[in-house]
Amino acid sequence: MMCLRRCLGMLLLTCPVLLTACSDDSKGSPDAGSPPVVAWDGTSTPIEEKSDWIDRGVFAPCEFTPPLGTEIDCDTPALFNLSQCNPSALRTASRHGIYQTELRPESGEYPWSGAGLVLPEGGGVGTSNFDRFTRQQFDDQGLLLTSVFTTTRGVAIKTALAGCDVPQPHHITGCYAVCTNGVLTEKGTFDADRLVLSRGEAESSGGLNLVSESAVDLGFPVDVYVTKNHAYVVSIQLKPDMPTGGLTVFDVSDRNHPVLKKVISLPGDGYWNAAWAKDDVLYVATKASGVILYDISNPGDPTYIRSVPSGAPPNVHTLFVDGNRLYAMALRPAQTIIFDITSPRDPVLLNRVVFSSEEFVTSYPHDSFAYEGRLYINHTDIGFLVTDPSDPMQVKELGKYHYNRQYSHASAVGTFAGRTIAFEGSEQEGAHLRVLDVTDPANIQLIGEHRLRPTTSIHNMILKGTKLYVAWYQEGVRVFDVANPTLPKEIAYFNAYRETDPKRLGFVFEGVMGMRVPGDGYVYAVDTSRGLLIFNEL
């Protein structure tokens, strides 16, 4: 994920910690009664781009009464006007569990982010996006929650929420206020969704079945690469006071019973976010060491070779291998690093490419996908870029797709009815699947989309033929038939997210993240709490 400004939600506006795993090689539940997907003839009509957040209107008839700009302490219950609320309904709401909260500013403008609420069973102190509540009242008298986050620059951000109603099962609505260094900077209403219960789905559907589950003890597991009958799981260290990340190796010769073979971590480098292999070399993207190379000629016992590039190592976040090219996406400094890996053990640095924009100076390349001579780059705020890397010293930008408050994060590209189609997703609350016709990079068209809940986010996706596998954080693994890409049809899912799993933190960027479908009949996914999950391939 990054100095990811959206990563920990509104309470962590300057978050220094989370940037989670990405890229890959290669609306509700499935409707068994709907007609089959008909092969696409290549014709389409562009649809309107509505961005990730769609304003659903005011959530509750309450308000925090002072005007914006007032010097005030947001943790002042008397300043919430709850006279039109339904306190009796709040008495029926679940008082423990994990809620993801959609915040709607009073102005109706695009919200900064949401907030995750963890309410422990048995009355323990809860948290909001890692921060312990300084006020926690949830009883027959109502709901009042307050937390404070202090940035690395000493800015104190206090958020207070007051419950108002329970308009539907497992949802709580109310109003909120945010004070920054004692000044009211935002207020509005919220809808809190207890994710594990609100949809009412089964654990799985469509024949996607869990074959095995293997815990990963190292850090916060985020990505996996599978080769030589071994799964290489990488993990990150979310915060300095949390467990370090690194590499966990499983022998998956028997997919029903993976065997832990080795665990690797390096002092001072606990953020390992992506992995890829070519021949006998495993490449690992790290925050402190750039790209680390491991010899996997003995696949169960990786041995360190060295790190690249030389000099001050960049913070490399994701990787993509295409033939003899290795593309490394670096966050800081922001750049796309291109290596020649004709000799896998001896990468040759070809270029460091920088795509800049005066308007989006914080943007960086988050992910990439190489296909038929083009490199597609998810360049966060700048947008989804189509480039020509045939001459690595003169990488050309051919076109881009951009929309309001974009955070382009992951993609997969293929050919359908003679058209080049990209499946793209951002990473934030409401992030959903977009289908783009990129045949003409200078005139990219949005031709389809699929949305799930407004409080969840896509993380990664893999296209295999006409099936698209999507790692959708708390929504688990979702599988779509995209034979007609303008109308993605969900055909299977597995809900991996459970509130009771260890290491659940209650923020939007947890759940199923990394995923591989290597063509051996199985789907390998990484859940941030449950570890390595292996499913049958559909």
Q: What is the CATH architecture term of the largest domain?
A: 7 Propeller
Number of E-state strands: 39
Find the CATH superfamily of the largest domain. YVTN repeat-like/Quinoprotein amine dehydrogenase
Helix content: under 10%
Give the strand order, joined by hyphens, for the main sheet.
3-4-5-6-7-8-9-10
- Number of helices in the DSSP assignment: 2
The poorly predicted ranges are 1-29
Query: How many domains in all?
Result: 2
Organism: Corallococcus terminator
Signal peptide: 1-21
Protein name: Lipoprotein
Pfam family, one: LVIVD
How would you describe the overall organization of this protein?
By secondary structure, the protein is mainly beta. The chain has two domains: 63-194, Lipocalin, CATH 2.40.128; 204-536, Methylamine Dehydrogenase, Chain H, CATH 2.130.10.10. Helices cover 1% and strands 46% of the residues. The strands form nine sheets. Strands 3-4-5-6-7-8-9-10 form an eight-stranded antiparallel β-barrel. Strand 15 and strand 16 (259-264) form a beta hairpin. The longest helix has 4 residues, at 87-90. InterPro entries: LVIVD (IPR013211), Quino_amine_DH_bsu (IPR011044). Residues 1-21 form the signal peptide. It comes from Corallococcus terminator. This is Lipoprotein.
